[in-house]
Amino acid sequence: MRHWLTKWTVWEYLPWWIANVPMYGFWLWFAARARHLAFFSNVNPAIPLGGAMGESKHDILQLLPPEILPKTLLVRGGESFENVAVALEKAGIGYPLIAKPDVGERGFLVKKITAPEELRSHLERFPVPFIIQEFLTLPVEMTVLFHRFPAEGKFGITSVCVKEFLSVQGDGVSTVRQLMRQNPRAVFQLERFDKEFPDVLDHIPGAGQTLLLEPIGNHCRGTKFLNGNHLIDKDLLDAFEQICSRIPGILYGRFDLKCAGEEALRRGKFKVMELNGVFGEPAHVYDPSFGMWRAYRDFYRHWRLLFDLHDAQRRQGIHPTPHGEAWQIIRNYFRYKRELEAR
Fold it and tell me: What's the pTM value of the predicted model, to 2 decimals?
């Protein structure tokens, strides 16, 4: 009962379809002002629909400066595993590695893979284009949300989120299952672990041992998001402005990255796993201490920022995606996702 109440009363655990209700209102308000339902799509003209959904992650990564990219390989759907193995060797990507669909969001089908047969099985089950990346061992994972107004030369960072991965601390007696039941964050992942990692649940970690349960930094996989906005300073702004000014056709985006620490981040020394477009959320709002009303306040500010960027682009003669084309992108994406979820 305690966990049920948490799911339905604590902001960060609310089902997405409830938590997003105010966002629909924000969208409709600014869409009415812009007289276009997909007004945000001209903010990032280099990405279909501005990166709202259905975009190719690999195509976006190709726009980024090469020094901030991990080793990455695009595998075409249905490609033979023998060819994949050869390509991995040429790219210098070993195991463990990260496999994720080229099109998808919120950790959809993202998996850390430790052996060739596991990769073969994953690719054969889901015969769509996949991105394979080296597994970065850098200790800190963050998100950084930026925007820029090229005409005015105005650049800003509005959200920094530091991720704390799902783990349990052993007592030498309890199983992982028992430890997860005692953890309000981990307990919501038990059903998934029963399906995907049942052997882990019977393991008994030693007293004081911290056991990492989930290496993928998605909130829906139990990762704790912490507000890192105190890190925003002149050095951070300067480092990211230099990088973002080299990314053509993207005025608003959120980097999902890893780095050695705060100082490395301020020096622009990091690796980007993904760059999300216009629907890249200000992830700091999911900090457990942030609260629902502050979160919606910040969401509203980001929708207003998207509207301002849209308006700036419109004045430059860059217009949103036509409604018919936008609707086709949305339909194709949801059809694609339904087909994969059915496998």
Answer: 0.92
